[in-house]
From TrEMBL:
<protein>
    <recommendedName>
        <fullName>Reverse transcriptase domain-containing protein</fullName>
    </recommendedName>
</protein>
Length: 196
């Protein structure tokens, strides 16, 4: 398999992490935008990835590699997204995708122009606030609230935190939401610096 699986395959490969490809995309997009290079980033969506099989294509391909036939998928053109970058912005490109010139989301992370960090992190904080509101409607002890934060809130932040730095305004919003939940909107009995 090492001869068949490319070095850019990071998911489900020992010693690799899917974040490696996200780091690569982040860095490449920034490089292309800084130099105004003609480029496009395409996010392919596999339509019913495990249900639809094109044996006519995949079987000969795998056979050539000396592997017994396996299944394949057809791209879903309505969910395949493309981001035109640099000199290719606003150009017609010969690939069937929903093209944009500002930003696209890939694996939960926004890439492109504007402020992809803010887009990504504001979505995460919206999710955190909603989750804390769900738990806030119940009676939970202080220790229980700390457990909720550690188990159901912070894990939402680890993944994007490995790819994009959170903007200062987002950190303030996040801290406010967590402490409001922790103290039920009442007077904070322990200084934040002590708890952080």
């Amino acid at each position: 398999m090492p001869d068949l699986v490319g070095s850019f395959q990071t998911c489900a490969v020992r010693g690799h992490s899917i974040q490696q490809n996200l780091w690569l995309m982040r860095d490449l997009v920034e490089y292309v935008m800084d130099r105004d290079l003609p480029c496009a980033l395409v996010s392919l969506d596999q339509e019913k990835a495990f249900d639809m099989v094109d044996h006519g294509f995949l079987s000969p391909t795998w056979g050539t590699a000396g592997v017994s036939p396996v299944t394949s998928t057809l791209c879903n053109p309505t969910k395949t997204k493309g981001l035109r970058l640099g000199k290719w912005r606003s150009k017609q490109l010969p690939f069937a995708a929903s093209w944009v010139d500002d930003a696209i989301k890939i694996n939960g992370i926004w890439f492109g122009y504007g402020s992809p960090e803010s887009l990504t992190w504001n979505e995460k904080v919206d999710l955190v606030e909603a989750r804390l509101k769900d738990f806030g409607d119940r009676y939970i002890s202080l220790l229980g609230k700390v457990t909720v934060i550690n188990r159901f809130v912070y894990p939402l932040l680890w993944y994007p935190g490995t790819v994009l730095a959170a903007p200062e305004g987002v950190l303030v919003r996040l801290e406010r939401a967590v402490f409001r939940f922790l103290w039920s909107g009442k007077t904070e009995l322990v200084r934040r610096k002590v708890l952080l």
